[in-house]
Amino acid sequence: MRGRAIDRLGYFLLRAIYRPFDLDRTVVSIERSSIAVVTINRTALAVHIGTTTTNLAHLLLALQEEGIIRALTPRRFEVLEETRLAASLPPNPQSAGQTSRPTI
């Protein structure tokens, strides 16, 4: 896997929010309103992004400290700042010049 683990996590979370129909059992559920609430399987997510569960916990804590997510329980959290989550992703050449949601 290429890229930093935090970038892979950000990409995965955005993909989970906008394309929940094609995910495996990594994301248990997503409730979508003005704020996305994601319930995850930490072990499956760590394997999916190519890291350990310990490192995943550190990554989620870093996102929480930056105000991007807020933990509700150890497996459930709210994505508060989708735009900041997307900021670490490489630009998509197909969406150059667009200001809408990222293409994932």
Secondary structure elements and pairings:
Blueprint: H1 5-18, E1 27-32, E2 36-40, H2 42-49, H3 53-65, E3 69-73, E4 76-79, H4 82-86
Describe the protein in words.
- With 104 residues, this protein is α+β, with helices and mostly antiparallel strands.
- The chain is 38% helix and 19% strand.
- It contains four helices and four strands, in the order H-E-E-H-H-E-E-H.
- Strands 1-2-4-3 form a four-stranded antiparallel beta sheet.
- A hairpin with a 2-residue loop joins strand 3 (69-73) and strand 4.
| Number of E-state strands | 4
Tell me about the biggest sheet? 4 strands, antiparallel
**How many DSSP H or I helices?**
4
**Average of per-residue pLDDT values:** 75
Percent of residues in β-strands: 15-25%
The helical percent reads 25-40%
User: What is the gyration radius calculated from CA atoms?
Assistant: 13 Å
Which outline best applies? Answer: globular
> Spans with pLDDT under 50 lasting ≥5 residues?
93-104
Q: What is the H-and-E element order?
A: HEEHHEEH
Given helix and strand content, the structural type is alpha+beta
How far apart are the first and last residues' alpha carbons, in Å?
Answer: 17 Å
Q: Spatial order of the strands in the main sheet? A: 1-2-4-3
